[in-house]
Design goal:
heterodimer, A: mainly beta, 6-stranded mixed sheet, 11 strands, 61% strand, B: mainly beta, 7-stranded mixed sheet, 4-stranded antiparallel sheet
Chain lengths: 109, 113
């Protein structure tokens, strides 16, 4: 049973395209995190959300608490956005994160 | 950047030998985690700590032990390494407040031959 589901698993886009990655979760959460991992690299946090929407440059993250759903959008995608994007949920109870299996994004020039 | 360093970053070891990975943080975060990352599985929790000498098992704890004698250090030991423990290991920290983000170390690539 996966508490966090991501879609799609793999995504290929042309440079400049608008990209959406989705995350659904089944538990009550206190926060939802979006993480980025470049090939062979470490993992960095892009956003932490508990409600609403956040924007950082070309990246936008939204969350709908009632629907238990979050999306990560990338506007005007660029080859340097090629990475694995991971959704992580911190439940209301406990301190163990639930992770999605990641979305592998490739942006082609 | 939460000042998390992992060591060693890369290691090749033989089956049956003990291996210890170290995670060091400089931010005084209460929670520390050890994960392994394998293709098709994503990040899986091995053990975590919620304070000095306070640890608990995660979903894939068999064959691993941990220790936390100081706030800043969280050690992961493979008691007798097996080929199935070949993986990338990530340490992470999180402050006590849920209003803060999670921080990851750079990863430790372990190959058991």
């Amino acid at each position: 049973k996966n508490e966090v589901e991501q879609s799609p698993q793999n995504l290929t886009a042309q440079e400049g395209e608008f990209i959406t990655i989705n995350c659904s979760y089944s538990v009550g959460i206190s926060a939802l995190h979006w993480l980025q991992q470049h090939p062979g690299g470490g993992i960095v946090s892009l956003f932490m959300l508990s409600s609403g929407k956040k924007k950082h440059g070309r990246l936008i993250a939204t969350i709908n608490i009632q629907e238990k759903h979050s999306s990560l959008h990338i506007t005007a995608s660029h080859p340097r956005d090629s990475a694995v994007y991971i959704c992580a949920a911190l439940p209301n109870t406990g301190n163990q994160f639930y992770f999605g299996t990641g979305t592998s994004l490739t942006v082609i020039p | 950047d939460a000042g998390i360093t992992q060591s060693p970053r890369h290691k090749v070891t033989e089956t049956g030998t003990p291996v210890t990975l170290r995670c060091h943080q400089t931010e005084n975060h209460r929670y520390m985690y050890w994960y392994r990352q394998d293709p098709g599985h994503g990040l899986r929790l091995i053990h975590y700590s919620y304070g000095v000498k306070d640890t608990d098992k995660g979903e894939v704890s068999d064959g691993y032990s941990v220790s936390r004698s100081k706030t800043e250090d969280f050690l992961l030991t493979l008691e007798s390494a097996t080929s199935s423990q070949t993986s990338v290991y990530f340490c992470a920290t999180h402050p006590i407040s849920s209003g803060n983000t999670i921080y990851f170390g750079e990863g430790s690539w372990l190959t058991v031959v």
